[in-house]
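Example 3.2
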Amino acid sequence: MEIWQIILIIIGGVLILGLLGYLSFCLYISNMMANMMVYPKHFKTTEEKKASNASYGDIGDISKYQRTPINFNMSDGYVIHGDYSLNNPKKFVICMHGHRGNREGLQKYSWALYRLGYSLVFYDHRSHGDENKRKKVTMSYQEHKDALEIIEQVKEKFGQDIELGLFGNSMGAATALSCTKERQDLSFVVADSAFAGVNYLVEAFIKIHKSPKFPILQFTEMFIKHKAGFSYKDVSIKDIVKENKNVPILLIYGDKDEIVFPKNAEILFTNIVAPKRLEWFKGATHCNAVVTDRNRYYKVIEEFIKENVK
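Structure, written as tokens:
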């Protein structure tokens, strides 16, 4: 064997080993990201969220509400736990929390709605909270199906003729926006820090960790599909909102959001064809606009509802 042939074999072997190492690294990162979404290690407990609320002072004071426990029975037998606070018996808002959180974390946001006369319904997403059974988290795919059933059960309990809006933050905001495709009878949606699609969350993680977009973006979708049964296309909120022709949508974002990058707001706002409003909060991080400027946060929601709900 000639020396040049030996050199080519060695170079080829090094390249193959390098490629295998690179692909192994990408697969490891992709699997880790999929697990973080579908099987997160830590969910906030009720006590942790209560402590977090207390740190905001009266902005997170849950004593404002008289809360009554309620269970929602899903069509697949899963039981979702929640509670409600009655105010005006003809006006309701269902509030939806974000990934790894629970309903206790919604208090500092929902006061804006309660003071406008709305009765509030809180619940823990599937796998979240202290009482719900742990399963998979699907970043609004299954959660929005649950939300549709909860909407119907709320109407069955309190009246088909009630005015009903949705509030959500992060994954809860994506869930609320997803409901508009099927529920054109909703009065409004307030979406705080909603992502435009799961692929944008993965892209943000890749950018933050300075990892290669290709093929990690594609591998992560493969793992998500295998673990949780949904693809990026199934949770493309930017496409879902195009189907909403009537339900007014308020988008709220912090310009320093480190999880849902600002481009998500621009993408969603461009794709919404129903009445819409986009509000930026300078200096606010993810889901933190209410803390950055509480008075403006409440005022924006109040103005939006008065302008769009007759």
